[in-house]
Design brief:
The chain contains 6 helices and 19 strands. The protein is an alpha/beta fold. The chain has 2 domains: about 180 residues, FAD/NAD(P)-binding domain (3-Layer(bba) Sandwich); about 100 residues, FAD/NAD(P)-binding domain (3-Layer(bba) Sandwich). The strands form 5 sheets. Strands 1, 2, 5, 6, 7, 8 and 19 form a 7-stranded mixed beta sheet that branches. The chain starts with a strand and ends with a helix.
Amino acid sequence: MYDTIIIGAGPAGMTAAIYASRREMKTLIVGREIGGQVVWASEIENYPGFKSINNFDLIGKMQEQVQSLGVEIKNDEVKKIEKTAEGRFAVYTSKDKYETKTIIIAMGLAPRRLAIPGETELSGKGVSYCANCDGPLFRNKTVAVVGGGNAALDAAEILSKIAAKVLLVHRSQEFKAFETVVDEVKARPNVEIFLNSEIKEIVGREKVEKIKIKNSQTDEIREEAVDGVFIEIGRIASTDLVADLVERDARNQILVDEKCQTNAEGIFAAGDVTQVEFKQITIACGQATIAALAAYQYLQLKQGKAAKMVLDRSVNHSAPRV
């Protein structure tokens, strides 16, 4: 029996484990990929304490710290969660079954992908899904941004201040972003816009070297030399696992209160998988801290209530009969 099982092994999951273990909670992390979305970054320059740190170095440090505290980490996927008759939870993975008093969901988001040649092979080698994370690595270089919503236009605006040139590639004629943001990007002299266009291939050996862009109206394919490609076509909250347990929003993000408590007693959530507006490592870690402490508080309150019930029964049994 665990005090808490954390679903997700990224920064949020690791942080929650640190705070849970420091409260003497028996803790298990279950995650498909150690590091979560950080795996998709390359160099991280916005994490306190490090001017710049490689993604795998940061993941390694987090994992080492967590394991030094006695936290178990299972590289596995949670397949089903059931509430037991005792008000606890049974967590089924592809390999095992575990029982726990609380759950912290910290599985993050999955970036939508283009599913084109070169994308997977060059991920972390010029292909990025986070302009805030990796933008500074492309100072005075040429980059491409894919997408037509607010995320893509924001990325193009940020990168226009860093990169020498930004190619903004959108498959439709009109952008879906706020007009003010669109106007601002269009006014940038170093941004070139490709409408009705799609990237069909990302080319490179050790790193991104160029892209192939196809115009959907003319079928013309042109090659453009770039140093990086930022894919900003949205992220997916894969939360069907808990669809019957917790409340979600229209984007399948898990709704939490100020204590990172869901509407289900004993289930907490933290990080990008929640409805928090800004998706950043430090925000995920902050929410995870709250979730772990709230889960501990929840258990303490439950134990207090249980102790009071035992005491009340004892008092009632010892009372003289009239």
